[in-house]
Task: inverse folding
């Protein structure tokens, strides 16, 4: 029997890319590939890219440059670029980087095995969203206690700063029964917590028994799976927080009290320029409804600082919204233009202005994060152990609110779901002991 071929995948960016990388590895397994963490020993190297963050393209080309010695030493090694940059810049990648053997967009990775076998330098950036999940193999292998599960892809919102509608296509949702089948398979392989993924996951509208149902009803169906103890979802748009989803936060104990709900700005003028189609007041009213349904919910968000045309008053409105909401954490970024998006044609603010605003916003968020962590001291929560800690007799996992918790538990094992009492808070995590 010949030795297995080795597959190395570098995953950039978002959680959906983590899921996609897992599915690509599973698609290549029937071809005789096993994964490796060492690029130099691989027979196939895949760079699974994300186009959301700043300088994403530069990072890709830098990594491809570092792979040049490997390609020169072993010309038979195949190098592929997948994901959103592949979708947006496939032809340019092939022209600029002769060492690249194949380019595969995010809607075509079910065809990766055939493309890897093909001669020439294939490029596949089509949008057959309806076929991809049907043609991928079933999930395989023993798994850890947590897993991602994509239920929705694409976005129809066309925010002025975002490339997702152009790289991931229109919104498409998987049928409920297929999501449930994949979830059951994950639970059978050891998973106790599933995070539902989508570029705009709360826009989910899947078919079940001939009817169209939303994310709240999907969560209700998932909650019936024995052995699935925790459910999360990300990332959401404020305009798609439907009544059934808010009710699920109230009624489904397995749905964790955590919600990432990006607002991007607290200024109505900036929100309009971003084409977000909601006002700050709409967002705040929505937060009130969500907290009425689940009072202990922890909220996080995304913010773009220095969007073209943002004034001091616009920025102060964002800080005011943050003070009113009170977040547990947030992702915040300086605006950076994405080619092909409407905002890319607008003049950027001076760097020193954007830098100062980002510093001020992050300082406010950090204060709120520390307050949220400190408020947990003395409280009880459940923790799902994900790995051993650095200290002897220590386990590390996530709380119900997605906070990292270090638990002194000599008898603990990965996959245990343990009731603990929080004993201390640091800047980024909590310490705890099991409740006896």
Result:
């Amino acid at each position: 029997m010949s030795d297995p071929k080795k597959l190395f995948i570098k995953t950039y960016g978002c959680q959906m890319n983590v899921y996609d990388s897992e599915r690509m590895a599973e698609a290549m397994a029937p071809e005789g590939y096993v994964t490796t963490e060492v690029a130099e020993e691989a027979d196939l190297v895949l760079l699974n890219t994300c186009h959301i963050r700043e300088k994403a393209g530069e990072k890709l080309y830098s990594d491809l440059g570092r792979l040049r010695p490997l390609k020169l030493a072993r010309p038979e090694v195949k190098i592929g670029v997948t994901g959103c940059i592949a979708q947006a810049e496939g032809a340019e990648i092939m022209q600029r980087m002769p060492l690249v053997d194949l380019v595969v967009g995010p809607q075509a990775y079910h065809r990766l095995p055939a493309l890897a076998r093909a001669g020439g330098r294939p490029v596949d950036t089509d949008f057959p969203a309806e076929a991809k999940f049907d043609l991928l193999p079933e999930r395989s292998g023993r798994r850890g206690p947590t897993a991602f599960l994509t239920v929705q892809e694409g976005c129809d919102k066309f925010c002025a700063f975002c490339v997702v509608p152009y790289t991931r296509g229109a919104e498409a949702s998987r049928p409920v029964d297929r999501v449930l089948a994949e979830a059951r398979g994950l639970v059978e392989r050891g998973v106790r917590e599933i995070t539902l993924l989508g570029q705009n996951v709360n826009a989910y509208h899947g078919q079940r028994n001939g009817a169209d149902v939303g994310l709240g009803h999907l969560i209700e169906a998932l909650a019936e799976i024995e052995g699935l103890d925790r459910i999360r979802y990300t990332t959401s748009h404020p305009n798609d927080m439907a009544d059934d989803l808010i009710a699920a936060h109230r009624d489904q104990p397995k749905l964790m009290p955590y919600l990432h709900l990006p607002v991007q700005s607290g200024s109505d003028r900036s929100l309009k320029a971003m084409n977000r189609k909601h006002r700050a007041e709409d967002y705040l009213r929505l937060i009130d409804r969500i907290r009425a349904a689940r009072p202990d919910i922890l909220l996080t968000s995304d913010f773009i600082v220095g969007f073209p045309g943002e004034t001091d008053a616009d920025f102060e409105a964002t800080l005011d919204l943050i003070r009113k909401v009170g977040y547990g954490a947030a992702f915040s970024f300086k605006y950076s233009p994405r080619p092909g998006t409407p905002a890319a044609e607008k003049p950027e603010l001076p760097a020193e202005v954007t830098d100062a605003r980002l510093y001020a916003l992050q300082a406010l968020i950090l204060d709120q994060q520390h307050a949220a962590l400190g408020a947990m001291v003395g409280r009880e929560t459940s923790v799902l152990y994900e790995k051993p800690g650095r200290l002897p007799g220590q386990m590390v996992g996530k709380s119900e609110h997605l906070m990292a918790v270090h638990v002194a538990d000599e008898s603990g094992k990965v996959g245990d779901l343990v009731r603990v009492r929080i004993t201390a808070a640091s800047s980024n995590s909590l310490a705890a002991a099991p409740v006896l």
User: Anything to note?
Assistant: The first strand starts at residue 5 and ends at 11.
